[in-house]
Amino acid sequence: MNPRIAQTSAPLLDTLAERWSPRAFDIEHSLPEGALRGIFEAARWAPSAKNTQPWRFIITRRGSESFAKIEAALLGFNQTWAGNAAALVVNIAETTDADGNKQPWAEYDLGQAVAHLSIQAQSEGLHLHQMGGFDRDAIRTAFDLEERFLPVSVTAIGAIGSLDQLPEALRERETAPRVRLPLEDLVLVRD
């Protein structure tokens, strides 16, 4: 049994069951020009309230100045592994539109867009790891973001690398079986 494949209580699409969030990325792997287009096209077609599409992305490749800015804004142990990914992406919610109208659903819609891109990436043989541990103000400053744009998460994208590049504590997490709450614990009301 592969500990990375989800043990589910109902059948899932293989792409969903096989999706997981590695920390060991192959530092030799690079993404050719256009390689991420499909996954961001999947994000573009995610549903959104009133079709506002309140998601924006900062897409960077390892070795670029922009990648270094994102890597520098990562917190804690995220800095020990995320720099090996082929790309770092800042996922941004447009919380107020250009006319100043609040978009209270923006973070939810961004989550859907990122979910769509993560499944598309998995189907294309790429792996992603989402992070909340980063300095939002540092990202805002580094990329001169308007107040209406809220950095919500950072995603590392690439190919799986060797466990040897990770500290021991992260190696254990990388190989541990995937665990989720039982489905029954997630449903509050069922009629």
UniProtKB/TrEMBL annotation:
Domain of life: Bacteria
Family matches, as SUPFAM superfamilies: FMN-dependent nitroreductase-like (SSF55469)
CDD domains: TdsD-like
Domain Nitroreductase: 17-78
Keyword check for Ribonucleoprotein: no
InterPro entries: Nitroreductase, Nitroreductase-like
Keywords per UniProt: Oxidoreductase
Family, per entry: Belongs to the nitroreductase family.
Protein name per the record: Nitroreductase
Species of the source: Leucobacter coleopterorum
